[in-house]
Design a protein that fits this description.
The protein has 469 residues and is α+β, with helices and mostly antiparallel strands. It has a 4-stranded mixed β-sheet with strand order 4-3-5-6.
Length: 469
């Protein structure tokens, strides 16, 4: 009982000194990663479409749009920066829930940090609060949200944005509780795009980021909301998930940080596909393998809903379809021949791929996906197992229980920086990456958040911005 109130009390009382150093370090790492996603994501055509539309209707001059430098209201700036953040399936994932907390937490917290005149230390606390609230709600409803067709980030994200706002405005527990109650009326999101496509998925972090910021602004203005928005008879958990575990909302609150369970994405596609890439890399480390050597690749995953989520599309009509197609994405990696972040499934790779390439399509048709059950792959959990049958009759197998970037198989700090530079260097001037990395590493020392924000803006044309566009 009263789980929403318990969470609100924790957020209202959260202080920098309460947060363990390992949690702070992870938060810095996630902030850097999401900044990289924002900067690179701002240069994409679909991001520019939203940017151009928002410029026509924008209001306010309080918060900054990454890369472009426009000043907008905090909710509009959060919307655009979150759009950029989630623009190409490269932002972080809490796979256990599953949800994408960073693409909501970081843009919402940054926009409100500018609006409130916060310090870097306050930004860090707001980000931690936003991650923890989103993940706990998604985890309480896991896996039933996504099994019922809801996209968890859109559902739980407004609560995260509201939590960031509560920290930055300095709300007491009652105002924080109202912010959560308001946030719940913004929850939404459906995953029909995995079946029939559509580009709206690109704003499935932006919608909740904007909603969370607005929830905080409305709460500050005195608007109230239901205080049982999560656990109530008509509350989020029952209405959206149907089946849920309320204990997960508050178990270990303040002692166990679920942020530590969050994973980074070395590859720019649905995180559920990543383990198959890693397994293919393992096979090829032992045995050289060319596309023409392959007769069939069988990928075993751990549930029918996951199979449906990433195994339905074989011949994608667009980039988003490719990013949710295990067969086509595996074909991209097989033909590229590389490994790691630059192994053929990175941010820039999906922008360049030809979906009608007959060789890629031929290889994609050779990839079969099935659910592991009562056989040698039955221990596959978050990961995947693969079996490659070659044209000369060999059978090559590998399994990866945890894909690269998950907490059980983490990216090192050097790998996180490598990914950041891979995203940012093609579209920003020389030295920008170094400056941003240094600023985030010392974020607690930043007294004026504008000093950090200015680093995220590209110079005027004809420099890097013109080249990117």
């Amino acid at each position: 009982m009263h789980e929403t109130r318990t969470l609100a009390e924790w957020v209202a009382g959260l202080r920098y000194e309460d947060i363990p150093e390992d949690v702070r370090e992870h938060a810095r790492r996630f902030i850097l990663d999401n900044f990289g996603c924002q900067i690179a994501g701002a240069t994409l055509p679909w991001s520019r479409t939203y940017y151009d539309m928002m410029r026509k209707t924008r209001s306010g001059t309080h918060s900054t749009v990454a890369y472009f430098g426009d000043r907008m209201s905090p909710d509009d700036a959060a919307f655009l920066n979150s759009t950029f953040n989630h623009a190409n399936e490269t932002d972080d994932t809490h796979l256990k829930s599953p949800t994408h907390p960073g693409g909501i937490a970081v843009p919402a917290a940054l926009a409100l940090s500018e609006y409130t005149g916060a310090t870097g230390e306050q930004l860090l606390v707001a980000v931690v609060a936003a991650y923890e609230i989103q993940i706990r709600i998604s985890w309480a409803c896991s896996p039933h949200l996504i099994y019922k067709g809801h996209h968890p980030p859109v559902g739980v994200g407004p609560f995260g944005g509201a939590a960031a706002g509560a920290v930055l405005f300095g709300f007491d527990k009652e105002t924080t509780l109202n912010a959560f109650g308001i946030a719940g009326s913004h929850s939404a999101g459906l995953i029909e795009y995995t079946k029939t496509g559509g580009s709206v998925k690109r704003i499935h972090s932006a919608i909740p980021a904007q909603a969370g910021v607005r929830a905080a602004l409305f709460a500050q203005a005195g608007i109230t909301g239901p205080h049982s928005i999560l656990e109530g008879e008509k509350g989020f958990c029952k209405v959206f998930a149907g089946e849920y575990d309320l204990k997960r909302l508050t178990d270990g609150l303040g002692k166990r940080y679920h942020l530590l369970d969050n994973g980074l994405k070395p590859y720019s596609c649905c995180h559920l596909i990543h383990a198959a890439f890693d397994a293919l890399d393992v096979v090829r480390e032992k045995t050289p393998l060319r596309p023409q050597d392959v007769k069939q690749i069988t990928v075993a995953t751990n549930s029918e809903p996951i199979l449906s989520h990433i195994g339905s599309i074989v011949e994608p009509p667009d980039i988003l379809g490719a990013q949710f197609s295990l067969p086509f994405s595996m074909a991209m990696r097989l033909h590229h021949g590389g490994s790691g972040v630059k192994g053929g499934n990175g941010f820039w790779d999906y922008l360049d791929v030809d979906f009608r390439d007959p060789k890629l399509l031929e290889s994609a048709r050779k990839v079969k996906v099935r659910v592991a059950a009562n056989d040698k792959w039955e221990r596959v959990d978050e990961g995947a197992g693969i079996e490659v049958e070659t044209v000369d009759g060999r059978r090559l197998t590998a399994s990866v229980p945890f894909s690269k970037g998950l907490p059980e198989n983490p990216m090192s700090p050097a790998e996180v920086e490598e990914k950041f530079r891979y995203l940012v260097d093609p579209v920003m001037p020389a030295g920008s990456s170094d400056a941003i990395i240094a600023a985030v590493d010392g974020i607690e020392k930043i007294g004026e958040i504008g000093d950090l924000v200015r680093l995220l803006i590209a110079p005027p044309a004809p420099g890097a911005r013109a080249a990117a566009e």
